[in-house]
Amino acid sequence: MKNIRIFLFATLAIIAMVSATMMYAPAAAAQSNRSEETFERILPLSSGGQFSVENYKGRIEIIASNQNQVKVDVKKYVVGSESSRQRWMRDVTVDFTQSSNHAGVRVRYPNHNCAFFCDDNDIDESGVELRIQVPRSVNLQIDGYKPDMLIRGTQGDLRINSYKSEMQIEHIQGPIHIETYKERIEMRDVDVQGRLYIKTYSGEVDADLTNIGTDVTLDTYKGDVTLRIPDRTGLDVDFSDGRRGNFQSDFPLTSNQGYRSSSIRGTINGGGASLHFETYKGTLNLRRR
Predict the structure, then answer these.
(1) How many CA within 13 A on the CB side of residue 268?
(2) Are 266 and 247 in contact (CB under 8 A)?
(3) Which of 133, 161, 237, 261 could form a disulfide with 65 if both were Cys (CB 3.0 to 4.6 A apart)?
(4) Do 153 and 135 meet the contact criterion of CB atoms below 8 Å apart?
(5) Structure pTM?
């Protein structure tokens, strides 16, 4: 009987060890198939200068600081076979530019003779993360196909071109120009100075604005836009509805022409900033913040 118990305990221990090994193996394999490279670069840039960044995918994070320099922390990462990881790490480069009033960073990806960018078949995941500190007063030009984006605390012109990037824009001041295809644009505590221009195909916009600026243009195909603005904001509203568009407002709208099937024109709080919204079947929501 004693020998039987010993045999059973040994068998159970072996089964537990095998199960733990099987559970750990995928995680260990995934970790062993991942390569990373990190480095940083510091570029001088005076307050009020221009900074440009271009990154196809991964992440672009830009945070304002009180220093007259740009600090770029770079992380390249790739998951896949060893030969593909080595080739990807070698071929993906990060270039830096600098002049008297401009600094920039550009990530160059290999195209492997594709008409457009394409990954190796045996690469499961790859990208470049850029975490950047810039002077608080800076003009930004950001280009990316599908990197997640975070911009916080800057004062100056902000221009973004993207295809499907999730965007968080927080505590900034200045004119804003964004062109993208889809995904969500979220703005918090944004003081628009001058013009606000957003063009998207099916992306969602949720903007909390302390000031709406002087000229707002919102152009969507079927994307919904929500603007949260102060109670006393004065607006001249021009809403153009190509088909099945919708207009919702917490503010009374004064209109001389009334509501038509394809357009709404009128004023809010006696008029003020120009607000033009054009859509095919999207919704414009004006909300009190």
Answers:
(1) 24
(2) no
(3) 133
(4) no
(5) 0.84
Length of the chain: 289
Lookup: tokens for 115: 């008409």
Cβ(200)–Cβ(184) below 8 Å:
no
What is the DSSP code (8-state) at residue 263?
E
pLDDT per residue over 80-138, tens digit each? 999 999 999 999 999 999 998 999 999 999 874 444 445 456 889 999 999 999 999 99
The maximal CA–CA distance of the chain, rounded, in angstroms, is 98
Return d(Cα 289, Cα 208) in angstroms, integer.
7
Cα dihedral sign, 89-116-160-183:
negative
Residue 272 in 3-state DSSP? coil
Cα(208)–Cα(21) distance, integer angstroms? 50
| Degrees to nearest 5, angle at CA 168 with 166 and 172 | 145
**What does the DSSP 8-state code read for residue 179?**
E
SS3 33: coil
Q: Are 274 and 236 in contact (CB under 8 A)?
A: yes
